[in-house]
Amino acid sequence: MKKLWGGRFKKGINKEMEKFISSLSFDKKLVKHDLLGSIAHTQMLGKCKIITQEEKDKIVKGLRQLLKEVQENKIEIVAGEAEDIHSWVENKLKEKIGKVAGKLHIARSRNDQIALDERMYLKEEVLKILDLLKDLQKSLLSSAQKNLGIIMPGYTHLQHAQPLLFSHHLMAYFYMFERDRGRMQDLYKRIDVLPLGSAALAGTSFPIDREYVASQLGFKKISENSLDAVSDRDFILEFLSASTILMMHLSRLGEELVLWSTPEFNFIELDDSFCTGSSIMPQKKNPDAAELIRGKTGRVYGNLINLLTMMKALPLAYNHDMQEDKEPLFDTVSTLESSLFLMSKMIETMWINKEKMEKGTKGDFSTATELADYLVKKGLSFREAHKLVGKIVLYCLENKKILEELTLAELSSFHKDFNEDALKILKPVSAVEAKDSYGGTSLKRVKESIQKAKKILEENINC
Question: Which active-site residues does the annotation give?
Fold first, then answer.
């Protein structure tokens, strides 16, 4: 294994140690970013006359050839060839252009290189995640619009609470994911900071032009402190933190899809293409995609705790512990992107059982609150009304009746202020329409919410 160091060592490295410290098997994912960063750095060295124009041209040409070979899969990165992706690039470049490749490393360290590579990688991936989030929101919005008017039970404690529109339920997730998009957009600004030029920890004595490199690589800002730039990973931690919240939202939605697709609920049926069968029970149709999204949430939580724990006691500046930041990052990105894609497609293709949803609100006492509100409007305190309606519900349970079947005479036996209009509010559709406060579940308010959501998606620019 060719190394970028070794002059002060008398002995070669232990073979097990060599395998233990190597990161090439996973940081090869950053090869494109390492090459692009190296090209910009070399161009800057030439511009600042730190290397000659001839040297600059030769190095840049070699790096571009290497980039082309990597992108066209004409060259394989094999674990064990080098200590890390930076060493691999420099070694391969030396094979192409000779000793002048050694000048590539002037005025930089692997410490600021890796921080650059990770920031470039994460900038790209956050933009992909934002697009996937928007696709999921579009799927939710489309389903909400298509199924306007369908009434379903609303739940607290997984018990029937109050009836609401199915579209209102879907739009709750739309706005959860909108906050997730906001978090991703906001953290992008803190990723978009160029660390290159910080060198190992103290900066460099060469007359470099960091602004030029930033403009070449599309960074809006330059790190203010060289020590901070190479020793910090809070841009990754912030991404992982936002990702855990996003995965939690996906998991909650996944849980509801699993529940709703059971025979007991039978509110929806997921498309065959996102389900699997059983190896022993021929009748089974399992909601595997939704279950795995729910399950993989734990991986993302673990990745955040992994990195927080690794960073918590590191003295400044760089420590080799920080090599352990990459696998949690890469795993989170791949888990998040696949989960978002699959959830979007499941929502887009699921079948809605309107009859079963609406049947679920019949006889479930979920309009009891409307009855209490009715009495409040007649002058009772809410606590008095709550107690009285509780007695009405108990009466129904003891007499095997449902609220919608009660007569005016029965209601009046509990309170003299009940009139004919009290019977109308016991219907689920009336209860839904009564919830006309801003953000409520009435048809008018849900339509407003859908229109607002459309504007949000039309006007919102990723970063």
Answer: 157, 278
